[in-house]
Amino acid sequence: MQTKQVEKPKAVVLLSGGVDSATAAAIAKSEGYELYAISFSYGQRHSKELECARRVGEALGVARHVIMAFDLRTWGGSALTEDLEIPLDRDKSDMQADVPITYVPARNTIFLSFALGYAEVIGAETIVIGANQIDFSGYPDCREEYLKAFERMANLATKAAKVDGRRFRIHAPLLHLTKAEIIKRGMEHGVDYSLTWSCYQGGETPCGRCDSCILRAEGFREAGIPDPLEG
Asked: pLDDT digits over 132-158, tens only?
């Protein structure tokens, strides 16, 4: 007699190719989710992160990986979507003192909206995001308050919730972890950080000077783990 295979619950994961999204995806996989990845070509400074997102998705064995393309350079407003200078060599107190020019207006709201539509169609109730409000660059759309508000909206604004009775959840497993703790968790779940990319500048090697590079380097150092991109 054959045993009926139990179908895994589906989760849509926002996959940027960075440390946090790769770790969040690996944690979700360990929790038993079948992963449906979504990444975004939104007119950012470089495509390196998308190449890394594809590699991370393949390593995680995602069921499907969608790359959504649109151009936020249409209105700019960020050093990542127009020709503005990226802040360099800042310490963490400077990063958290204000919202930096690398903030992309409404980016996580846009990304989560796409992920919500994707989830509604494929029958997923969980959306996974690598947001973190401990070691971050002052972005207001990485906070728990914001993610809970989006979750409430998702359960008000969708047919799946209002008619079919589904309950959407924004799953942010890294929200209260330091970068070092995130990296340690990732190592426990077998994340290959050589596949990831954090630098705002792009290029063949990380600049080591932008906020994202500095936070990454500090995280690996505090975790006592060599960064494979520094080898």
From this structure: 988 766 789 999 999 999 999 999 999
Question: Phi and psi dihedrals of 198, rounded to 5?
Answer: -120, -25
CB atoms within 10 A of CB 158: 17
Domain that holds residue 60: 10-225
* Structure-model confidence comparison of residues 80 and 93, the more confident one: 80
**Count of structural domains, the chain:** 1
In a domain, residue 3? The reply is no
Task: Please indicate, yes or no, if residue 60 is contained in any of the structural domains.
Answer: yes
Question: Which ranges constitute the DSSP H helices of the chain?
Answer: 19-30, 48-60, 92-95, 107-122, 144-157, 159-162, 179-188, 211-223
- Asked if 132 and 89 touch (Cβ cutoff 8 Å), the reply is no
What CA–CA distance (Å, rounded) separates 18 from 16?
5
